[in-house]
Every structure is written in structure tokens, then in C-alpha cells.
Amino acid sequence: MLQPAEMDSSRHTPTPSDPLKMDTNREIRCGFPEAVFAEGKTPAQVTEAMVRLSKAHDRILATRASQTHADAVAKALPDSQWNPTARCITWRKNPPTKTDHRACILSGGTSDLPVVEEAKVTLELFGIQVDSIPDVGVAGLHRLMDHLPDIRKASVVLVCAGMEGALPSVVGGLVSAPVIAIPTSVGYGANFEGLAALLAMLNSCSPGIGVVNIDNGFGAAVLASRILQS
After folding, report:
1. Cross-strand pairs, 15
2. What is the mean pLDDT of residues 94-116?
């Protein structure tokens, strides 16, 4: 049963002029602080959210951020870091404590790199070591097989793919580690902005593959962290 301290994450009451109510106790409940989803928020709102979270945590993350968001946050938190490919802003009070766990992120093509980087940034914030292997899509299967010995060393494998989304099924038949499939919105018309890849991954004939939402590198990384910490 949740204790009152776990539920009462903030005594701040949102108002129309200040709608933020940060869940500062999420790390107690879930093992990782609340992340700020920057898309749709003003630079001032993202900055205020990260400043409030920085007072309660030693690591914070904003996803789907823009350069404008990053510039605003940097004025309030000079030690924050901006990854333009991942569209992520991170801030740490202390260097991360690295774990013995190692994750491997595969991608079908370099067009998937924004999603790969979002997952990588998130995992590294957990202290998890990450190997990123891009451009190993099924159209050139030999490229994947060349890396198979290294992939099999990972404790968990994240697989990003757009188009027809076949790569996670192939990987799921080659490794014993948990596989997390991340459909991306990369592809031509009938890809339907990632829906085709999502449905293919959900219907994979490789049993036991976990699937997250389209382009959700952050969610895949959180799932991977929970698997590794369990």
C-alpha cells in the first residue's frame, strides 16, 4: 500500500497562470524521476518544471525539446546538456553511478537515430552502459550477423525499425536477452507514420518481444531499466 508521503508528491496547487504540478516522489515509487515532455510547452514552462525537479532529484530529463527550450533551461541550469539529435535536455547534480548492466540499441537505418538517441540518453541517465549499433536493417542481413557476438553480450536489446518493422522479429530469434521493439515513423506512404511497423512488431512470430509506442525511445529505455533492476 502506498504511504501518504509517496502520494503527496507536491503541495503546489496548479492555477491557470501556473499549471505545473510536479510529481517529485515518482522516483520513490517507480525508481526514476518524472521526465518533462517538452513538446507543446513553452520554454518558460519547461524551465520551471526542470528547476523544480532539480531541487528534488540529482538527475532530470526533458524529452521532445527544441533548441529554444534548451537555451531557456541553460540560463536557469547552466550545467544542463542538450542533445539535438535526441531532442533531449539532461541535468545531473553528480556524475552518474554506472551499473554493471549493458544495453544494446540496434536500428534498421540511420533515419532511426533520433529515436535511438532518445533511448540512449535515457539509459545513460540510469547509469546503464549502452552500445549503439546503427544501420543493421534486414535488407542487408549480413550487417546484423557481423555484430551478433557483441549483441549477445547485452543484458537487454532495444531494436528500432521503421518501414515494415521486421528487425525485432529477426533479433528475437537470435538472442536470449529480453528484446524491446521500438517502431519508428520512418518509411513511405503505406508505413502510415509507423503504424505498419507497430502492427508487425505486435504480430511478431518471435515470442516474448516487448513493444512500445511509435518513436518512443524514452519509454523503451524506462522499460529496459526496469527489467535490469528487477
Report:
1. 18
2. 89
Q: Count Cα neighbours of 88 within 13 Å in the Cβ-side half-sphere.
A: 23
For residues 225 and 227, what is the distance between their CA atoms, to the nearest angstrom? 5
Helix (H, G, I), strand (E, B) or coil at 46: helix
How is residue 185 written as a grid cell?
515513423
Can you say whether residue 165 is alpha, beta or left, with left for phi > 0 and alpha for psi between -120 and 50 degrees? left
- pLDDT at residue 12 tops 50: no
From the CB of residue 79, how many other CB atoms can be counted at a distance below 10 Å?
Answer: 10
- Locate cell 517529485: which residue? 24
Within 13 Å and on the Cβ side, how many CA atoms surround 89? 30
Domains of the chain: 14-92 (no CATH), 102-229 (3.40.50.1970)
User: Directed axis angle between helix 217-229 and helix 113-125, to 10°?
Assistant: 40
Tell me which residue of 107, 178, 113 sits closest to 144, measured CA to CA: 107
CB 119 within 8 A of CB 222: no
Confidence of residue 78 (pLDDT cuts 50, 70, 90): very high
For 179-219, what is each residue's pLDDT tens digit? 999 999 998 988 899 999 999 999 999 998 999 999 999 99
Half-sphere exposure of 2 (CA within 13 A, CB side): 11
Among the listed residues 90, 83, 92, 93, the one whose alpha carbon sits nearest the alpha carbon of residue 36:
90
